[in-house]
Amino acid sequence: MMKSRLRATWLAAALAAPSLLLSANPLYAQETNQEAPAMQRQSVNPTTWGAAYLMDQGEVVSGASRVLRTSGQVAIKEDPASELGITITHVGDLRGQIQDSLASIDAILEQADMTRSDIVHVHFYTTDIDGFLANYDVYASWIEPAGVMPPQSLLGVIPPSLQNPEAAV
Fold this sequence. Notes:
With 169 residues, the chain is of the alpha+beta class. 29% of the residues lie in helices and 20% in strands. It has a single domain, classed as CATH 3.30.1330.
């Protein structure tokens, strides 16, 4: 029973961070002998407040042919001594947890042959909205070089909603 509860705990913690990604298909040319259509992005912003957060309020995406959906990414590292083989990093350090969560996204993107410029939406879940916003520069400096401003959602969850008191994002 305890092992099953621990698995549920880690599963819930692992559902907290950036999610949907989309890209043009780099294999298209090989499969069709034609150049892959470029992914087109059109910003939709009825007001301008989102630009200060490197965020479009909406975005029309066309010409994309590959979709990568990620599970939520939290700040974890392998830990063979742990029952599940992983442990939360930067306990009590929201900034460090944001950095590690984004590093996990980078690793997934690299393995999928994609880049940050392919991200079309980001969901953030945190137990501390004020703390997250105080450390928003971590995300801004991570996404800005990609030249995109994906729409975002920032949702506060009430502990123990992440089911692991050490996970804050």
